[in-house]
Amino acid sequence: MARIVGGLTTSHIPAIGNAVPREQELRNDPYWKEFFAAYPPAREWVQSVKPDVAVLFYNDHGLNFFLNAMPTFAIGAAPEYKNADEGWGIPTVPSFKGDPKLSWHIINSVTRENFDLTTCQEMLVDHGFSVPMELFWPNYSYGNMRTVPVQINTVQHPLPSPARCFALGQAIGRAIESYPEDLNVMLIGTGGLSHQLDGERAGFINKKFDLLCMDKIVNEPEALTRYSIHELVREAGAQGAEFILWLAMRGALSHKVRKIHSSYHVAISNTATGLLVLENAA
Fold first, then answer.
1. What is the greatest pairwise CA distance in the chain?
2. How far does Cα 236 stand from its chain's mean position?
3. Could you tell me if 196 and 181 are in contact, meaning their C-beta atoms sit under 8 angstroms apart?
4. 98, 104, 220, 242: which sits with the fewest CB atoms below 10 Å from its CB?
């Protein structure tokens, strides 16, 4: 049977995508030093658990879907996912392998649990997907990894509630664990933490709320599902609603997890950046 080995969370800011190719050059730069210093322990743990597949919970930023047609939940079922620059000048990276067989197993299983999904047999991926993969598998070492993209709407209101996203993660977790092949599966929740890119609160960061979320998501994630989307936007900013991607990832893990590593850094590109490494219960 497939086994979920753990979960990772990370920010996916476009500025990171521009900086990653120059990580060695920037490792002592005051702006980037603390950010990049947080990732080697996470990379070491990823290598130690040897995942075969990464399931990424992320949000599309107008590459596949726009305001005229924005699915709440979409899952990729393609053999390959090509990276495309959506206007940030991020270098295009090598494509990502898909796992259509696992994708269809998840799609069928989750649909039976009354989630309505958009199924994508062709799909491009943007910085929300590619930046985390580059951070955890540097120098494009993700080449042998298979991936399953799970796209959640954080752009066009109404957005799915934290509780609904957590429940989706739980359904995906059950689907993975019922998959008959012997696989190690890694989960990744991307985005956030608190930030707002426009309007009167542009530049808004709520460190107190971010740290609360990073604490509660480990052992009390249900407490975070009680927030409404409007409460989440109020506390974390308009784009801070991306935290629902972290909650979906956490829902797919076991009830009990062990925190291996964490980091919180303010700010990269007006965004509070967070990193968590959670090991799934045996």
1. 51
2. 17
3. no
4. 220
Residues β-bridged to residue 239: none
- What the block records as the tokens of 84 is 């495309």
- 188 — phi, psi (to 5°)? -135, 125
The first and second tokens of residue 206, run together, are 């709520």
Strand partners, 263: 275
User: In the structure encoding, which two tokens stand for residue 140, read together?
Assistant: 């494009």
Rg of the chain (C-alpha set): 17
Residue 258's closest CA among 274, 280, 276, 236? 280
User: How does residue 16 score in pLDDT terms, banded at 50, 70 and 90?
Assistant: very high
Helices 243-252/229-236 angle, 10° precision: 120
Q: Of 266, 260, 264, which is closest to residue 42 (Cα–Cα)? A: 260
pLDDT digits (tens, 9 = 90+) for 104-117: 999 999 999 999 99
Q: Quote the pTM value.
A: 0.96
Q: Which residues are catalytic?
A: 127, 195
What percent of the residues of the chain are helix, what percent strand, and what percent coil, each to the nearest 5? 40, 25, 35
Chosen CATH of 3-280 out of 3.30.1330.60, 1.10.3720.10, 3.40.830.10, 3.40.190.290: 3.40.830.10
Residue 123: per-residue pLDDT: 95
Residues composing the chain: 282
